[in-house]
Amino acid sequence: MLIELGAVILGLGLLGALAVRAGISPVPLYLLAGLAFGQGGVLPLGASAEFIGVGAEIGVVLLLFTLGLEYTAGELVSNLRTSGPAGMLDLALNATPGIIAGLLLGWGPVGALVLGGVTYISSSGIIAKLLGDLGWLGNRETPVVLSLLVFEDLAMALYLPILTTVLAGVAIATGAVTLVVAVTAVALVLFVALRYGRAVESFVTSPNDEVLVLKVLGLILLVAGLAQQLQISAAVGAFLVGIALSGPLAESARALLSPLRDLFAAVFFVFFGLQIDPASLWPMAGAAVLLAVTGAVSKLVTGYLAARRAGVGRLGRARAGVALLARGEFSIVIAGLAVAAGVDGRVGALAAGYVLILAVTGPLLARVVEPLLRHRLRSRPESP
Amino acid sequence: MVEVERTALPGIGLRHTITTERGRQVGVVSHRTGRRDLVIYDREDPDTCTETVVLNGEEAEALAELLAAYRIVERLAELENQIQGLVTEQIPITGGSPYEDRTLGDTRARTRTGASIVAVVREGDVHASPRPDFQFRRGDVVVVVGTGDGTTGVADILANG
Lengths: 384, 161
Hints:
The complex is a heterodimer. By secondary structure, chain A is mainly α. Chain A has 15 helices and no strands. Helices cover 83% and strands 0% of the residues of chain A. Helix content of chain B is 30%, strand content 35%. Chain B has helices spanning 57-82, 104-107, 109-113, 148-160; strands spanning 4-9, 13-19, 25-31, 36-41, 49-55, 87-92, 116-122, 125-128, 141-146. In chain B, a hairpin with a 7-residue loop joins strand 4 and strand 5 (49-55). Chain A binds chain B through residues 70-71, 75, 78-79, 124, 128, 135-143, 146-147, 149-150, 251, 312-313, 315-316, and chain B through 7-12, 15, 17, 27, 29, 32-33, 37, 39, 41, 45-49, 51-52.
C-alpha cells in the first residue's frame, strides 16, 4: 500500500511541477490523474483507495478552512454591504446556466441545484494567484473582483448546508430546520468572531508550532464533524473556524497548515477523478463545452457590469470579467458532495469536464486579454 | 496635503494610492504577509497599473528611508516659517573647518550660542538628534535650530572655531 500511495503522491508532485512550468493551475491535472487511476482508467488503484477516500474528506475541510482564514469577520460584514447588488447579479447570471442545464438534461431539481452551484462559484484559489502573477493587484477593478469572490464564498456557506440537506433527501420540514441552524451558525460565528475574537485566539495561540498545528487541526476537524452531525456540511464548519481565527494567529495557522492543505486537497481532486469513469466523460463532452462557453460569457458579463458600476474603464471591465472566469476547487467540492450522495454519475462527469475546460482557459485568456484589447482600443477612435 | 486613497483588498491586504501634482498615480499594495508591492499606473489609463515592483519587508523599509531622509530637513524649514523668530540653518562642514574629525561636544555650540544642532546629514543619511560624541566629517551638513543670532553664531564656530 505504501508503494502505491508513494507512487501516486510522487506522480502528483511531478504533475504539480509541470503545472508550475506551464503557469496553469494544477487542479485540472490532478483531476486527470484521478481519472486515470479510477475505474476504467489506465492504472486502476488497489489498496490505497481507502486512504485516499479519507484524505479527500480532510482535503475538503482544509480547503474551506484556509478559505475562511483569508477573510476576517469584519471584512465579510462590510463587504456584504458594499458588494451586495453586484454579488446578487453574479449569483443570478452564473447559477442560472447550471440550473437550466440540469433541468434540460433531465436530472431533476437536485441535479439542477448541484449544477447551479458548480457553474456559479469561481475559483478564488486560481484567481488570487492569477491577480498576483499578472501584477493586477494595483488595478482599479481588483477590489471589485475580490469582493465578488468574498460574496461567493459567503453564498457558499449558505449553499452547502442547503445542498447537503437536499442531497440527504430529508423532508422539507427537517430541511428547513437545518437551514435555520446553518444561518444561525453562520451569524453566530460572525458575531463571536467580531466580539470575542481575542478570547478565541488566546485559547488556541501557542508559541510552539507543533502544539499550534495539533490544536488548530483538532479544532477544525472537531467543528467540521459537529457540523456534519447537524447536517450543515463539514466544509461549512471548517469555513466558519477559519473566519473566527484572525490576526497573527491566522497568519501562523495559514503558514503551518498550507502544506497539509496542499497535500490533502490534491488527494481530494484525485479522489473525485477516481469516482468518474473516463468512458462517461465523452458523452458529456458536448454539454461540458457548451456549459463552459456559457459560464465564461456569464462571468465576463458579471465582471464587466460590476466593474462598470464601480466606475472602472473599458479595459478594466474586461479584465474583471476574465479574471473571474476560472472555476476550480469549489465546483469540484460541490460536485464531489453530489457524487458521494449517489446522484446521477453523469453530474460528476459534466462538472469535471466543465472545470477542466475553465480552470485551464480562464488563466490563459487572462494573459492575452490585455494585449488584445489594448490593440483594439487603440485602433478604434477614442469614444467619449 | 496629499490625498491618500485607501482601498481594502479582501483576503490580500490594503492598497494606498496617491496622485502626484503632475498627474501620475503611484500606490503601495500591503500584503498581510508583509510583502509590499510598489505599483505605478499607466499615464493615460488610471485603472491599469503597468509596473509592479515586489518588495520584501526589508526592501520596503530601505526604500521608505530613502524617500523620507530629506523630508526631515524640509519639515524643519517649514517649522521655521511657522514659529516666528526661530531659524533653521544648514551649515556644511568644509575642508578648513576646525571641527572636521572632532566631536559635536567639542563645539560647545549650545552653551556658546543657545542654538541647537538637531541633525546631521551625511551622504544622504539623516542622523537625527546627534549625541555629543558624534564626530563631524568633511561634507557633513549640520542642521541648526535657534534664533537668527544663534544660528549665525554656530555657523561662525563651525567655520572659524
